Amino acid sequence: MIYLDNAATSHPKPPAVYERVDYVLRDCSANPGRSGHAMAIEAARIIFEARESIAQLFNISDPDRIIFTPNATGALNLAMLGMLKPGDRCVTTTMEHNSVVRPLHALSEKGVTAAKVGAALDGSIDPRAIAAAIDARTRLVVVTHASNVVGTISPIAEIISLAHDRGVPVLVDAAQTAGSVPIDVSALGVDLLACPGHKGLYGPQGTGFLYIAPYLNPEPILFGGTGSRSDLETMPDFAPDRYEAGTQNTPGIAGLGAGVEFLLERGVNEIRAHEVALMRRLMDGLASIDGLTIYGPRDPAQKTGVVLFTFDGVDPAEIGDRLDTEFGIAVRVGLHCAPQAHRTIGTFPAGGVRMSPGFFNTAEEIDRTVAAVGQIAREGRVAAA
Ligand SMILES: Cc1ncc(COP(=O)(O)O)c(C=O)c1O
């Protein structure tokens, strides 16, 4: 199989990820932070080390400000529901994933308003438009670091700087960039960073995290046991315990730690260079097919490893199905949980075909993919004639 769906979940993982998960499940699946015996202490050490590795990768000075969540959605919910209160306003964009759109919609029923700043046809966001939308009631800016539909990378340095000039913190949705585009939390001054563990960080599904800057104190959205301050009926007032109620996903976090160690060894820049080269080859190949339209920036340096296309007169679902069943190529079609983004670029409601190569794809796989799309396109033209 040629797996081109890394924007949904990365596959395969570096071998050390499988080994670490296996080790935890077999040899130390005790409850971290709860009991005092040797196996529980080993489980807690593994979680501690994963937090440390993540802190190193993102240049986060205090690893305890990294809160483990089940996915990026959990991290985004914690940030928005924890930060926004009735009467508050949030500024966001039309390129956001439903994991931002839906919590904000739910919050709108509790008196939180959201201003959605439009993006250009290629999915790019103007930082000045975000700055202009900030008013006296704005308590948070929420912006995707890169679109999961077209891959367009947002200018987060400028967005953060302009929002900070107006005293407003920024929540960055790094679902599409964590691990594949360098992110220096300290240098950028990121206030809240939401990441999945199972995409570019090579962890298993069921992992993710939210980084919360030390000067922010969102309300917890989950309440329960933490193994600390068990005498209290309230959540402990220190991170990460304030936000991590219930037993942790130790095998998943262990695997995530191994994925992040792989990234630290290889360097995000090497991963990025490989993905940009694959993207250039893929986009050049697809662009040579008559009747095919590519959306988003044409320069791979301006985007992540995501290409979206449509083909005149052929339903994207049919193309995805043929790629899967006849050629063994895994892609994702439709709206990609981001209907507003598809409206913005003009592909709503049918959506498009999304291909997202990753570090483990090869140039040869890209060439076979382009040939397969070319064949489907030729047959589509013959059938239409
Ligand atoms: C931009 C963006 N934000 C958030 C998410 C949600 O991530 P998760 O599936 O880890 O909750 C995704 C998933 O595809 C995404 O692409």
Alpha carbon gap, first and last residue: 32 Å
| SSE string | EHHEHEHEHEHEHEEHHEEHEEHEH
Helix content class: 40-55%
Bound molecules: pyridoxal-5'-phosphate
Please report the number of helical segments.
12
In short:
With 385 residues, this protein is an alpha/beta fold.
What does this structure look like?
The chain has 385 residues and is an alpha/beta fold. It has twelve helices and 13 strands. The strands form three sheets. A seven-stranded mixed β-sheet has the order 2-8-7-6-5-3-4, with helices on both faces. A four-stranded antiparallel β-sheet has the order 9-10-13-12, with helices on one face. A two-stranded parallel ribbon has the order 1-11. The longest helix is centred in the C-terminal third of the chain and has 22 residues, at 363-384. The mean pLDDT is 96. The structure holds pyridoxal-5'-phosphate. Pyridoxal-5'-phosphate binds at residues 8, 71-73, 97, 99, 144, 148, 173, 175-176, 196, 208.
